[in-house]
Amino acid sequence: MQRRGFIATVLATGSVIALGRANWATAASGDFAVTRSEAEWRAMLSDMEYYVMREEGTERAGTSPLDKIYAPGTYHCRGCDLPLYSSKHKYDSGTGWPSFWQSLPGAIGTKPDRKLLRVRTECHCARCGSHLGHIFDDGPAPTGKRHCLNGVSLVFKPA
Q1: So what's the pLDDT on residue 16?
Q2: Are 75 and 156 in contact (CB under 8 A)?
Q3: What is the pLDDT of residues 77-119, one digit of tens each?
Q4: Which one of 77, 80, 123, 148 is the catalytic residue?
Q5: CB 3.0 to 4.6 Å from 80: which of 36, 95, 117, 128, for a disulfide?
Q6: CB of 108 within 8 A of CB of 122?
Q7: pLDDT band at 4 (very low <50, low <70, confident <90, very high)
Q8: 25, pLDDT greater than 60
Q9: CA torsion sign, 52 to 18 to 20 to 36?
């Protein structure tokens, strides 16, 4: 019985992960205002940018130079240039990733991310669907949110 239970758990977990990936693939394939073929995305993005933005990967903590930029300006989506976050909402979370307590209105979308053992809130660009990072409930006032983002998904434009 223990062996059957283990096998059932592994199969169920695999199904949940596959279903989540299938749902993302459907959304990324055309539910956004800006769409590109896989070849177009690969031509415009580095391998790491593609991995993070199109395959929902994560860059290593502490590797993004954007983490320590606090100059006035706006952070845009690398995939479609949509303004996503204002430097006014940025703070040092100590995580090694650029962090914000809120996005610009209508700039991001969210969905449940079930790839790990717990459900997280994934955030993506509302216009092209590029993966940005995750939103957690341990941020500062006034929202209490921490938008923990991959710097490779962003382009900083000084004010």
Answers
A1: 39
A2: yes
A3: 999 999 999 999 999 999 999 999 999 999 999 998 888 788 8
A4: 148
A5: 128
A6: no
A7: low
A8: no
A9: positive
Residues with Cβ within 8 Å of 97's Cβ and at least 6 positions away in sequence, in order, are 59, 61, 64, 67, 133, 148, 149, 150, 151
- Look up residue 30 and give its amino acid: G
Query: Among this protein's residues, is 80 annotated catalytic?
Result: no
- In angstroms, the CA 121 to CA 144 distance is 14
How far apart CA 136 and CA 110 sit, in angstroms, is 12
| Distance of alpha carbon 51 from alpha carbon 33, whole angstroms | 21
CA-CA distance, 102 to 135, in Å (whole number)? Answer: 9
55: closest CA among 150, 145, 147? 150
Give the contacts of 118 (CB within 8 A, at least 6 positions apart). none
Query: Mind listing the domains of the chain with CATH numbers?
Result: 2-158 (2.170.150.20)
Q: End-to-end distance of the chain based on CA atoms, in angstroms?
A: 63
The whole-number pLDDT of residue 2 equals 60
Q: Which residues, including other chains, have CB under 8 Å from residue 11's CB and lie 6 or more apart?
A: none
